[in-house]
Amino acid sequence: MDLDELPDVTVVLLLLGHAAIAVLLLLDALAPPKLRTLTLRVAAGAGIVLSLGLAIAGRGSPEWRGFILDADRSLVAGTASACAWLLVGARARLLPRVERGALVGAGASGLALLAAGRWLVPSLLFALVVGAAAVVLLLEGRRRSYAWFGVAAGLAIATAAFTVWWLDAELWELPLAVEGWEKWLVVAAAGLLAGGLPLTGAWAQGAARGSEAAPLLVGAGFLLLLRPAAGEQPWVAASLVVLATAAYAWCAVKERKIGTVTACPILVALAVSFVAPSMVPAIAVASLLATTVLLLMPAARPTAPVLLFTHLPLTAGFGAVVVAGEVAFRRAVDAGEVIDAVPWSVVVVVLPAMVGASLLLARRLILRGAGGPIHSDARVATWLIAGASLALALFPEALLIGDGLPSREILLFGGASLLGLLTAVIVRRRAGSDVSVPLPDEPLASPPAGPRFARTVAAAAALFSLIAVAGAAYLLVEGLKLGFL
Amino acid sequence: MRAEALPAPTTAPAVAGLRVAGSILATGYLVGAAPGSLLVLAGAFALITGGRVLAMETRDAALSTIAFLLISTALGAAALRWGTTSLHEWREIQSVFGSPVILEPQIAAIGCGLAAAAGTLGLVLWLSSARIAGRGWTLLGLAEAALGSAALVTAFWGPGVPDGEGAAEIAIALGRWVGATLVLGAGTYFLGRVLNHRPAVRWIVAGTAFVLVVVALSLLASEL
User: Fold this and answer.
1) What residues does A67 pair with on adjacent strands?
2) What is the pLDDT of residue A446?
3) Displacement of CA A155 from its chain's centroid (Å)
4) Cβ of A356 and B18 within 8 Å?
5) Angle at A405 between CA A402 and CA A409, to 5 degrees
6) In the prediction, which pLDDT does A485 show?
């Protein structure tokens, strides 16, 4: 079947199927705990299938009413919701609470509709749905005001930017690009939603309860970067690469909170996005996979999959980082003026340092202490993600995140992966099954309780929420007055 | 016991797997089995470094990572000299112009010479970090020494394996490339062993290489 000729019912299912799962999960709330675990796992499996369907269906750009599945946006939204469902499934036994799955379902449908939306007002409303579902999920932990603040600030800034843009342009279609200071507002909103700030928004709760919301927020942030904030921004990219390197180095030396570590690959992804805008889908997918592994870490304690956030070869993010490095090198060499070459040179020179710092952080995370117990579900989920990342590294064209690799390169990468894996298996057998070796006593820390000014942060979050809702409501009323909606 | 300790059993598979995978990738790109750029080659070395640091104490791991940065940046100087990161294009250009270390203009040649020296010191430093006892690990270490020196030889010494030439010319070029690689590899491996138990000297080497590579990049940038 051609993907551009998908029947309407399939497109509707891909967009609204998650919400249907959410409704079914709510009906299951009265069932006994064992049945709830099973239901959650089945729901998570169905959610992942729908998400992958959305990611692939975008290649054919099928349409339904005011929605069109765009390849890049569908890929990002599909991956984000698949990661969120994977987290739900991996925690089904530990935390068999169906209402959390229902919130993920609602958020995933909101994200799918946001990705497929063509019109400004509905898109803002879907973004609010994603934000609301995420905030409710994140409100359970200790740093709830910071979670709320990050999400609300991101949404409020985005709404303000689009409202100002609309007042000027008076167009109802979601813009392909915005210019001027509105663009910087959208960039800031994307950074906030995608998790560029540690211990805030998506990362406020670290890997604790509510972190199922994180992939949805990261996905929403990258959707904003794909459209309308895409574009080369050398100085922003250079600043972000330096910031990412500093963040990795800081985490490698001092920091042990997952909510801080997860912000590092996001900073790299944002930097890559401003160097090579065509790589936004690829680096967004890689970041989603990497941060999901990090969120599963306390329960899974994987070794090799931790390396996903370093964007080394054999991971999904490597291709995008290489392309960004190539683009920056070319721009630096071709620059007519010295001042034009500076930011690109900074990107090229600092990139290896960023990789080095990320290696040291990965080492620290892998060699940390025992922490809590290992859960097999989380381990399986982690290795599934690592497998998906390797598959995307070998066949990036399979999900339209780049050109296909030359066959000789696929052979080389495939051979390296296989022989590396084989060597690891042989060494593991020779080393025996003893895993209780002395390791540095560095269990991953939970995010600290909110500091004293948590109330102020909560007040600011409430204000931002008001701005976001008011902005969307204003545009909605204007649309209704003009008869557009 | 810093130098001779085995990696912990939990990390040993990852150490070996990453180092082998990275070595195969680096070999593939260095011998031209697949088209690649300096960035991909640096990625392969990063993969090896990622495996190596898992079996090291924190200070050794930091030094090893610094060494990786020095090697990558030194190779980057060659990319700056030729204006391309493509390894294939390097070989083509160098088969015509020869080594960048002796090619006019003088400032650029000096810059490349300093970068080559910094890269060599970086490689010594890289190989000096904690060694693991055992035949397999030693062989892996020797292979990594050969790969590091092959990268430096490819970047700074001159023509590698030419395409489309006669069999004799290919054999001679290959022989020279392999010979230079082995000499540099053996030298750096030996120096690495010597430095293994001299932590203070290793920091001095790292500082010297850093200064050299910064001066090299400045000289090359001034010629752009």
Assistant:
1) A64, A117
2) 56
3) 16
4) no
5) 150
6) 57
The answer to whether A382 and A290 are in contact (CB under 8 A) is no
Which residue type does A135 have? V
Tokens linked to A73: 């946006």
Answer whether B76's CB lies under 8 Å from A348's CB.
yes
Identify which of A357, A416, A424 has the shortest CB distance to residue B16.
Answer: A424
Q: CA nearest A221: which of A188, A255, A246? A: A188
Best mutation target among B23, B24, B135 (most A Cβ atoms within 10 Å) is B24
Q: Give whole-number Cα distances, A114 to A120, A121, A213, in Å.
A: 10, 10, 16
- What's the pLDDT at A447? 59
Is A108 in contact with A48 (CB distance < 8 Å)?
no
What is the residue whose two structure tokens read 């931790």? A306
User: What span, in angstroms and rounded, lies between the C-alpha atoms of A270 and A231?
Assistant: 11
Which residues, 6+ apart, have CB-to-CB distance to B220 below 8 Å?
B77, B80, B81, B108, B111, B112, B115
Collect all residues of chain B within an 8 Å Cβ-Cβ radius of residue A416. 20-22, 24-25, 28
DSSP readout, A79-101? HHHHHHHHHHHHTTTT---HHHH
Measure CB to CB from residue A412 to each of B25, B68, B79 and give the nearest one.
B25
Cα A443 to Cα A301: distance, rounded to the nearest angstrom: 10
State pLDDT tens for residues B64-90: 999 999 999 999 999 988 888 888 888
User: Do the Cβ atoms of B65 and A357 come within 8 Å?
Assistant: yes
Beta bridge partners of B86: B37
Residue A70 CA to residue A227 CA, distance in Å, equals 11
Cβ-defined contact of B65 to A360 (cutoff 8 Å): yes
Over chain B, what HEC string results?
CCCCCCCCCCCHHHHHHHHHHHHHHHHHHHCCCCCCEHHHHHHHHHHHHHHHHCCCCHHHHHHHHHHHHHHHHHHHHHHHHHCCCEHHHHHHHHHHHCCCCCCCCHHHHHHHHHHHHHHHHHHHHHHHCCCCCCHHHHHHHHHHHHHHHHHHHHHHCCCCCCCCCCHHHHHHHHHHHHHHHHHHHHHHHHHHHHHCCCHHHHHHHHHHHHHHHHHHHHHHHHCC
CA A189/CA A229 separation, integer angstroms: 10
pLDDT average, residue stretch A413-419 = 91
For residue A117, list its beta bridge partners: A67
What per-residue string of b and e applies to A373-396 under the rule 16 or more CB within 10 Å gives b?
eebebbbebbebbbebbbebbbbb
Give the Cα separation of B125 and A360 in Å (integer). Answer: 17
Tokens of B173: 């070029």
Percent of chain B with pLDDT over 90: 42
* Angle CA B179–B185–B190, to nearest 5: 130
In angstroms, rounded to a whole number, what is the distance separating the alpha carbons of residues B52 and B123? 14
Q: How far, in Å, CA of A117 to CA of A129, rounded?
A: 13
H or E element that contains A283: helix A280-300
- The pTM (predicted TM-score) of the whole model is 0.90
Name the average pLDDT for chain B: 85
Res. B2: pLDDT tops 50:
no
Q: Which segment, A4-8, A22-26, A253-257, is predicted with the most confidence on average?
A: A22-26
Top pLDDT among A421 and A60 is at A421
Name the CA radius of gyration of chain B, rounded.
17
Complete DSSP assignment for A20-33: HHHHHHHHGGGS-H
